[in-house]
Amino acid sequence: xxxAKIRKKLRESEAEKQSPNANGQMIPSPEDRIPPDEKIxxxxxxxxxxELREQEESSQETxxxxxxxxxxxxxxxxxxxxxxxxxxxxxxxxxxxxxFTLMQQEFAFRVSQLDEILKxxxxxxxxxxxxxxxxxxxxxxxxxxxxxxxxxxxxxxxxPDNNKGKMLIVKGPKGPIGVTVDxxxxxxxxxxxxxxxxxxxxxxxxxxxIEGVAVVEKRFVSIINxxxxxxxxxx
Length: 235
Known about the structure:
The protein is an alpha+beta fold. The protein has helices at residues 3-17, 46-71, 149-152, 204-207, 226-229, and strands at 94-102, 105-110, 114-119, 133-139, 142-148, 166-172, 175-181, 183-191, 210-216, 219-224.
């Protein structure tokens, strides 16, 4: 390409740089875009960058204990005399008892000692057994002994032939045992401290059957010692 063509090409390029845009404004050349009085910032030396970074890390480490202290949950202040737990004090245990009647007297078993309540059902007598053992019956294919609780507690002299009461299936030492009662009243919840010792005028033979006495709706209920009540003394 000769000199004339090169000059022509340069003139066309200069004309394109000075041509107006769509809004009628002149597009400045790259050299005209930076104002003459504005200085280009000089690059920061690497040593200065390292020094600034160390100062920033040191500042973060200094503030770290304060940040951790702010993250800790606030301790709730307990007013004096309102401690969460008092030493030596324990919550009172609540027990449930099933109350029932025998010869118009009210007795009870602990519910934890019972399996179920049944209607009185047919029993088969067994020879050479104590009078308080009515006989045996079948419960879901298992033979269990039935005790007349009135005779065992010496509340009656003989067992009625036609008993229309209920059977309580209790947890015996060697398996379930049925005891007969006249009428079931219901379940009552009481505290252990509400169980009073049995009357002192009872004989030793009577005291071994009574665990304690509870007051239920202004009525005295004798809680039976289940282990003694269902003990079978066979010859």
